[in-house]
Amino acid sequence: MLDWKWVRENRVKVEEALRNRNTDFDLGELFVLDDRRRALQQEADALKQKRNEESKKIGYLKKEGKDTHEIMKSVQDIADQIKAIDEQLKNTEDQWREKLLWIPNVPHPSVPVGHDETSNTEIRKWGEPRMFDFEPRPHWDIGEGLDILDFERGTKIAASRFTVLKGMGAQLERAVMNFMLDLHTQKHGYQEIFPPFLVNSRAMTGTGQLPKFAEELYHCQDDLYLIPTAEVPVTNLHADEILPEEMLPLYYTAYTACFRREAGSYGKDVRGLIRQHQFNKVELVKFVHPDTSYDELEKLLSDAEEVLQLLNLPYRVVTLCSGDLGFASAKTYDIEVWIPSQKTYREISSCSNFEDFQARRANIRFRSKTGKTLFVHTLNGSGLAIGRTSVAILENYQQENGTVIIPEVLRPYVQGMELITPQYRVM
Q1: Can you give the pTM of this predicted structure?
Q2: What order do you get walking across the sheet with 218-219 strand by strand?
Q3: Is 350 a catalytic residue?
Q4: 137 is catalytic
């Protein structure tokens, strides 16, 4: 969340940011609640001071042997007024704090202003899309032809947008995951984490999923939610902690399954692996000093890009405009991989700097060398979405006869196999 003192001092700037984000959030209502909160607090403080002064008089009167009945009644009346005001104050503060959680982050000045994804800015492209001498098939046809993707059974045992991976489909998923984790831990300096896949509501609130995105989450019993991304448990590792400055930056990477309701229809994405209720992802999370967070964002982006470069998959990088920016993000780069059957680039990673937005919600701070306590900046990015990486491999490495070449860097993870061929087994 935003620093409320900063919001009060920069109301015009925040209102402009809300307009640029195309949000209808009513900042005025929040100011009304805050003004009421402040007025009630002043009233309560004044009454408490008066109660204390009257209470002191009781002691003096008793020493002088005078009647204290009336003044004691007055003190009790004041106490009753304080109790009533404190209740109003608590209710007002609760409303104010709840509404404060709905304010999105303020975009960084370098973020282009725009209404929607059509205003996103392309930064660069890497690699040339393959020129096929046959019509490239979509990954679902390739996967079913090889008998490595089973959409029908996924629907049977769960629901639509769940898929069973079979044989080399499962091995490819595992190979991609291990390749990514090895790259990020052995070359890029991230510490691997294997977190819970269930988190509590406070953790969801800390990273910004709650309260705004409650309908998109899988809510279980006992105040637990299935995670939509490893960002949630990994960022909350340091909730309510004060880190020494010399520990920064901290780099973490984690594989998790991810669970999202993904309400609504997305045309072609209803079919295949692009948009699933359950999918696998390797996440990159950073806790950094505020002075270096935008340099760290560029490094994070580079780390995610290298996965695609080593897999030799063409992609492009775009900067999201203000209207397409995620709720908690101050700046986001999307990496989009080339999908031959769709003849377009599709998102495979988002790399974001949240500045201190999440840190304030989760209370993650560091103590500077001068002794001052400050909020860290948090960053995260997909490094990468595993299922979408598998989609890109199946489509970019497909052969006319239906087989798929395994990228060279993945072969050590599949016992040296070079080709995915049909291998039918009875399930």
Answers
A1: 0.92
A2: 198-200, 224-226, 218-219
A3: yes
A4: no
Given 355, 388, 390, 395, the catalytic residue: 388
Options 21, 51, 260, 361, the catalytic residue: 260
Burial 288-312 (b: 16+ CB within 10 A, else e): bbeeebbebbebbbebbbbbbebbe
CA dist., res. 3 & res. 10, Å (int): 10
Note whether 310 and 186 are within 8 A (CB): no
* CA pair distance 339, 393, nearest whole angstrom: 9
Q: Supply the pLDDT for residue 55.
A: 85
| pLDDT tens for each residue of 99-108 | 999 999 999 9
CA–CA dist 97, 373 (Å, integer) = 22
* CATH architecture assignment, domain 117-420: 2-Layer Sandwich (3.30)
Helix (H) or strand (E) run with residue 250 in it: strand 250-259
Tell which residue, 315, 306, 298, has the closest CA to residue 282: 306
Q: In the annotation, is 329 catalytic? A: no
- Is the backbone peptide bond immediately before 374 cis, with ω within 30 degrees of 0? no
- Six-digit token pair at 54? 């009257």
Which pLDDT tens digit goes with each residue over 149-183?
999 999 999 999 999 999 999 999 999 999 999 99
pLDDT band at 206 (very low <50, low <70, confident <90, very high): very high
- DSSP H/E element including 145: helix 139-146
Pair of tokens at residue 373: 């306590």
The side-by-side arrangement of strands in the sheet containing 315-319 is 121-126, 315-319, 331-339, 344-353, 377-385, 278-288, 250-259, 191-193
Q: How many CB atoms lie within 10 A of CB 239?
A: 16
Active site residue 352: no
Q: What is the rounded CA–CA span in Å between residue 409 and residue 398?
A: 17
Distance CA 368, CA 237 (A): 20
Q: Is 395 a catalytic residue?
A: no
Asked if the model's pLDDT at residue 70 lies above 90, the reply is: no
Beta strands in 289-401 (DSSP E): 315-319, 331-339, 344-353, 364-367, 373-375, 377-385
Q: Which residues contact 314 (CB under 8 A, 6 or more apart)?
A: 125, 126, 127, 128, 129, 130, 337, 338, 396
Helix, strand and coil content of the chain, in percent to the nearest 5, comes to 45, 20, 35
